[in-house]
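User: Teach me something about this protein's shape.
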Amino acid sequence: MNFSLRSRALLLGLLLAGGGAAMAADGAPKASPSTAMAQRPGHAGIASANFMATNAGFEVLAKGGNAFDAAVAVASTLSVVEPESSGIGGGFMATLHIAKGNRNVFIDAREMAPMAVNPKDYLNPDGTPNRDTALKGPLSAGIPGEPAGLALLAKRYGKLPLSVSLAPAIRIARDGFKPDPRLLGSIKEEQKNLERWPASAAKFLPNGQPPATGEIWRDPDQAHTWELIAEQGDAGFYRGETAQKLVDAVHAAGGNWTLQDLANYRAKERTPITVDYRGYQIVTAPPPSSGGVAIAEILNILRGYDLAQMDQAHRVHYIVEAMRRAFRDHNDYLGDPDFVKMPLDMLLSPYYADGLRQSILPDQATPSSMLPHGPAQDPGMHTTHFSIIDKDGNMVGITSTVNYILGSTFVAKGTGVLLNDEMDDFALVPNKPNVYGLLGSKANAPEGGKRMLSSMSPSIVIGKDRSAVIGSPGGSTIITQVLEGILHFIDGQSAQQIAADKRFHHQFLPDVVDVEDGVFDAATSDSLRKMGYTLKPREAWGFMNVVTWDHRDNKLDAASDPRRPSGLGKVE
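Assistant: First, the predicted structure itself:
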């Protein structure tokens, strides 16, 4: 019966797709359909996972920069002080609202497979995924996108030269800082892998050991690399001295990058996905992020229900069933839009959502039995997100990553650049789970020059009375955490409440609901189990960073997730 209903929903979507959510083709961003916000806050709010990064953003604002200059400062500083989660050797996705002209823009600085990629490099002799080559060392690394993305952000939307916006990161890397407990713990956890490569050990294991608590830690090589970018723009990374050092180091360790791979990399401006829900416009990430499509699909399903009038168990039931269906489509259809034709009109159509809604029973879970079952790993938190609203009403949400903890753990000698391990985000073996338990099809198969699918979902919510910038790290849970943050914001919660809310997650397979301790009371948990749900406790969740803007009193509010004590949400 489930298969029949799904087939009918697919057919209905194909026949009637259109309206509701909008995903335009690449090109010049169009003005937001929402009413232009005439007022300006007059002050700024920044929330990030590290107080030094938040303060770097305010330092640049004080020098005359806008939200986009501040974003360059925050991202580059996080590369120095939070390398376990993001950095110069990784990539990011950014959702922007430009107050002048009331425009919404998306920047895709996702990593890209090198042209010489060979899927066989990621397989064991028996055909199973080789997790070592997919997650550790240079073969696991895609061509980084962060330097190009920050340069594009500054050139097109900033007010200051890169030399000003990158100055805090350069200073902190050169002069040093005291690593927080999370970075120290990450270095200890990955010590054996870091020891495999001399440059990694030199950077992260001074004197052969992780930095001691309270010790000043410096990264002069990364400072020099950022200085070249400050002087030359992205050419300071993708060409010349740094590019040659990157390629030489990768080749020496068995990788396959070329100078042409680096020279060919471009950050891309795409049109974001927009979806209307309960009087708010949600502006979110298009492919190669899967997050925006999934969030839009979930919201289109949910707008057929009055969640506010339900008890908690039934509210969660309908949200989980919407998550389940969106993640199924995530696995089936999504990939790099420059390589894969995706049925986005269908997936984003409210008519398609109507069909999916008809397959949801009011008091019973739907088993996830249509795709082969794959055991999932705990989602990693080794991504970061920050949110900014400036005094003029410009808004930016950036989710940045090196993928898993300390990325590939491979540092290119002489650069300070810790490479990502994003190749694991491809479907290296179709319908076999990656490190986050997500399945994939040939739409997300590795190919030279292709960008791997991502869950990153930086989102902006625009309403008549209130607006917000919301995002989180968390592997596959990014999508559901951002969704829940959006729902809580629309329900009227503050930035602090949204960042602190307990969370739950379902991703189609495995067929369990991951729950944070305390998210449900005993009665709700019992009701969900009676409906057929398996609840699985999970300790690891992302670190959400939120900035809200109340248009009624023109007040900004910024909050960093209390799960990360070193984070800082600040308004000035």
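Now, about its shape. The chain has 21 helices and 18 strands. The first strand starts at residue 45 and ends at 48. If you'd like, I can walk through any region in more detail.
User: That's plenty for now, thanks!
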